[in-house]
Amino acid sequence: MKSLANYTFFLILTLFCSQTCIINIPSVAAITSMKPGDVLNHSQVLDSEGGRFKLGFFSIPQTNKTYLGIWYAGDPVEKKLWIANPNTPILNNSGLLTLDSTGALRITSGGKTVVNIATPLLTGSLIARLQDSGNFVVQDETRNRTLWQSFDHPTSCLLPGMKLGYNLTTRQNWTLTSWLVSSTIPASGAFTLSLEAIQDAFQLVVSRRGEIYWTSGAWNDQGFPYLPSFRDSATTYQYNLNLVSGTDGMFFQFEATKGSFPSLELSSDGAIAAGDGSIYTRYNKFCYGYGGDDGCVSSQLPECRKDSDKFEQKRGDFIDLSGTSTSYYDNASISLGDCMQKCWEHCSCVGFTSLNSNGTGCRIWNGKRDFRVDESGNAVQRYVLVSPKSSKGKTWIWIVLSIVITMLICGLVCLIKTRIQKLQHEKRKKEEHIHEMNAADSFSNTNLKEEDEREVQDLKIFSFGLILAATNNFSSDNKLGEGGFGPVYKGQFPDGREVAVKRLSRTSGQGLAEFKNELILIAKVQHRNLVRVLGCCIHGDEKMLIYEYMPNKSLDFFLFDPETKKLLDWQKRFEIIEGIAQGLLYLHKYSRMRVIHRDLKASNVLLDENMNPKIADFGLARTFKQNETEAVTRRVVGTYGYMAPEFAMEGAFSIKSDVFSFGVLMLEILSGRRNASLQQFNRPLNLIGYAWELWKEGCGLELKDPALEDLYDTEQFLRVIHVGLLCVQEGATDRPTMSDVISMLGNGSMSLPIAKQPAFFTGRDEAESYSSSNKTEQCSINDCSITVIEAR
Ligand SMILES: *[C@@H]1O[C@H](CO)[C@@H](O)[C@H](O)[C@H]1NC(C)=O
Ligand SMILES: *[C@@H]1O[C@H](CO)[C@@H](O)[C@H](O)[C@H]1NC(C)=O
Ligand SMILES: *[C@@H]1O[C@H](CO)[C@@H](O)[C@H](O)[C@H]1NC(C)=O
Ligand SMILES: *[C@@H]1O[C@H](CO)[C@@H](O)[C@H](O)[C@H]1NC(C)=O
Ligand SMILES: *[C@@H]1O[C@H](CO)[C@@H](O)[C@H](O)[C@H]1NC(C)=O
Ligand SMILES: *[C@@H]1O[C@H](CO)[C@@H](O)[C@H](O)[C@H]1NC(C)=O
Ligand SMILES: *[C@@H]1O[C@H](CO)[C@@H](O)[C@H](O)[C@H]1NC(C)=O
Ligand SMILES: *[C@@H]1O[C@H](CO)[C@@H](O)[C@H](O)[C@H]1NC(C)=O
């Protein structure tokens, strides 16, 4: 009994001691808000009002780098839901969060500012607090206004109540960006998640370095088709998804009905995961672009890859065989998602892994390699290309198939031969060397008798004989003009169908297979505002593209001719602008490959019989490019006067350089003048500069083409000038995207941002320094004056 009593006493003592010990630890008083002058250091934490969230500095053990973040109180893994400085870590524990009297929220270290989180620049009774929704806000207490909130600057996670989408009025665009390497490097990774309206359907879109990679499918009140239900009772998490759309924007939100620590995260692989990291997107690890029922966006499959190829994670190593190599991409800003793309697109690549131990960089194995699997725990994991082989039992099927195919090809070749002989007969004076296209083997089918436009391998091949006959031996009478990539001829097939034949100049230096691939892609890009490619013809070195024929020629023919321009009234001109915008948007955003036109100009806009505009020559710049992965091309293809400054000077192209050309085109359509034509007025200004001067002086209507009758909508006219000037701004990032342009043009009540000075503006600023003879002209209308400087 005594020992029991002793034991009990001991137990009570222990308990008491542990209690007092806990009490004795100097507990830091909970901080729930910050006032101007307050500082939060590495050992302090800001608690949310109801205690659900915490904000503070944390270090990542693998890198010893420190960040400021928000996490759920009590979450065992303390998953970081928001990070203030993902790209600017602090290298030691000296980081401080400060709020000063202007409302500026900063992280400093060693007396220097590491990152400005918010700079509202407002005095008043300021307070920074973490709300119980996980939103970190800076508020002006007297006016009860939120000056800044972390919900407006999402990182990789979405919390209940947080928005994903955009608001055109406030110009906010809430998107998620993946971490570079999951759980260790929060720096911006390869993937972004945004909400977009694609063909009138609202979809979540994951992009990899700007290229659409995965889409959720159209929102259908219940959810998204490729993002399985969050309502399934078996799942750990249950979320109610909600989509709100208005005329000026839309956003996606969710509320959690089941599961602790709810969130939606864009993982560093580009997948969407719920709170505990379980993946909710249907694809497993990588999207390959060969379609399927998983939302992965189909894209051009590299020649060498098959629909069943994929990468598998295996332990072991590659064994060197002769003639093999390893490539390294020593870039600390890329990780596995980028390596997968590099390997997938590089035909000889058989496997990859990251280069650095922290998960960045790429190492890629090329050539014929064997992989030796090593299941012992210490072998490293690699991503190995797995190509399922056809089973041996089916060999006889292949034999039979190849016999059948050989016979078919023989039959076809005979057919083509007789056909060509017939044509030669008809035309009598054909040159001797007309023979069937040498590409017959790779194109396998050339059914010319078929009158409908059914695609054969998605691309129709015409024989050289047929093209020669149609264009009357490329006679100069049939020549329609000279495009950027070669002359264009009118042709007429024996059945009466009219076509335009572009004879590509021989500078492309591309292989036949690559050329074919490009053509198949170009042929797939179809939109009512794009000229339709009917097919192609290959004869020796010679490559030709066959387009639908546009009876009304090109826009420049109408626009810059004093007589024909009268046929283009304001209504028509506005429709043409809208049509071009729609075609360009399609190229930039919704076609299977993102196409940057790079040579948009009035002569590349053709008009059909109803004067609907159709953009021509798209996709060709791409086939003429030397290196697919380079964003800077040595060969600047384009037309002077339409080229954006960054393109003309550095060869850097982007969709924004097309926007620039579109802006120039808009101004030309309004004024009926060529961009470069204003020299005749003895002015050092081009059209852009002229439009800008007028606009600044409030004389925008002066830009109007005199051929336009008074029948036009003044407000709409001014709006188009405004949008045009936004498109030709110097900074590519300032320029709107084509979808912005379309909403700006279409919505008369939408307020537009103020246009900054355009590029190539050689007006007053520059001229003033050397001008001695200034001449002032009066605008005739509206009594506005515009100063025009004349150089000596
Ligand atoms: C953080 O601030 C608190 C309160 O001002 C202070 O007691 C503590 O020593 C500071 N910690 C560090 C590491 O500076
Ligand atoms: C991080 O710091 C710890 C302790 O100071 C040190 O042992 C470790 O090597 C550091 N790790 C890195 C990656 O620098
Ligand atoms: C932490 O780093 C900053 C800048 O990198 C430096 O100024 C400061 O002295 C360092 N502090 C400590 C305690 O090492
Ligand atoms: C501040 O505004 C919010 C909503 O905007 C409101 O719920 C709250 O009651 C307001 N607080 C005061 C003190 O007016
Ligand atoms: C929002 O940003 C994403 C990714 O940067 C972009 O794809 C999308 O077009 C933007 N949306 C708007 C309306 O600007
Ligand atoms: C966009 O922001 C404006 C101004 O705050 C607001 O009135 C409007 O409702 C918002 N639109 C959407 C779709 O959220
Ligand atoms: C590293 O990769 C990033 C992201 O793709 C790219 O922007 C950057 O130019 C690359 N740096 C080098 C040196 O290639
Ligand atoms: C990862 O490792 C590479 C090479 O060692 C280094 O250059 C890079 O800075 C590291 N990145 C991070 C975030 O630690």
Summarize the structure.
With 792 residues, this protein is an alpha+beta fold. The protein is built from 15 helices and 39 strands. The strands form ten sheets. The protein has a six-stranded antiparallel sheet, covered by helices on one side. A six-stranded mixed sheet has the order 30-34-35-33-32-31, with helices on both faces. The protein has a four-stranded antiparallel sheet with strand order 1-10-11-12, with no helix packed on it.
Euclidean distance between termini CA atoms:
117 Å
Q: Residue ranges: pLDDT <50 for 5 or more in a row?
A: 1-5, 7-27, 428-456, 624-636, 763-792
Q: Level of helix content?
A: 10-25%
* Number of helices, counting only DSSP H or I runs of 4 residues or more: 15
Subcellular location: Cell membrane
Transmembrane segments: 396-420
Pfam families: B_lectin, DUF3403, PAN_2, PK_Tyr_Ser-Thr
Keywords: ATP-binding, Cell membrane, Disulfide bond, Glycoprotein, Kinase, Lectin, Membrane, Nucleotide-binding, Receptor, Serine/threonine-protein kinase, Signal, Transferase, Transmembrane, Transmembrane helix
Labels describing this entry:
792 residues; alpha+beta; Phosphorylase Kinase, domain 1; Transferase(Phosphotransferase), domain 1; six-stranded antiparallel sheet; six-stranded mixed sheet; 39 strands; disordered N terminus; binds 2-acetamido-2-deoxy-beta-D-glucopyranose
